[in-house]
Amino acid sequence: MPAARELLLDAAYAALDRRPWNGVRMVDVAAAAGVSRQTLYNEFGSKAGLARALVRREADALLAGVERTLADAGDCADAGDRCAAATGWILRAARTNPLVRAALTGCRGDRLPAVAAPAVPAPRGPSGPAPARGTPTPWALADGIRDRTARAVTADLRRAGPEPAADAVLWACEAAVRLTLSYVLAPAVSYEEAAGQVARLVRALLSYEEGDAEDGADTAEGDRII
């Protein structure tokens, strides 16, 4: 049987599907989860604490799904295939889960808790304060998706040949994530079309970087001969 915390989060998510967050009552969430209201407050402290935990759970589930999708693409998948698979997962999650969509885009509407889309992103610099746990910003989620994708793509490229340039892989994956997010806001005709565009972009960027590196190596070799 799930722990009380998970039961309460499930109940809160179900309640949010039926009414706006400002209409969700803590007593109703506790009753739906089959626990006392005191247990609810012991777990989350307040309604705002419940909202933060709910948003964090959905954001963590999105990132876990991205990792799982990248791994499930198979050993024969290239960088484009993996990025396309991640795109399909993200678009489906954003379509079916309003908390995920809000966390990715920063647009929450009136039905969701305010922490679903923080109004002011935290600074990205290393000296800036970290965002509060439970309130993921769109850029933090985008970075998480990019980094997971880059690790999977780098592993593929290492198996296929020489060590890839880390900045080139990160750049290609960043572009893939940004294009994916544009499809969250302005959907393509189908998930497959969006995923195909992402795959083409990644392959083109990595091919360009590879060709540029080869041209640089040829130039250096020519300089040595001269």
Description:
This protein has 226 residues and is an all-alpha fold. The protein is 71% helix and 0% strand. It contains 9 helices and no strands. Helix 4 (47-72) packs parallel to helix 7, helix 5 (79-96) runs antiparallel to helix 9 and helix 8 packs antiparallel against helix 9. The termini are far apart. The model is unreliable at 126-132 and 212-226 (pLDDT under 50).
Short précis:
This protein is an all-alpha fold and 226 residues long. It contains nine helices and no strands. It has helices at residues 4-18, 26-33, 37-44, 47-72, 79-96, 98-105, 138-160, 166-185, 191-225.
Number of helices: 9
What's the β-strand tally? 0
Large-scale geometry: elongated
Unreliable parts: 126-132, 212-226
Helix share bin: over 70%
Mean pLDDT comes to 85
Strand content: under 5%
What is the gyration radius calculated from CA atoms? 21 Å
Major sheet description: none
Helix/strand-derived class? mainly alpha
Distance between the termini: 74 Å
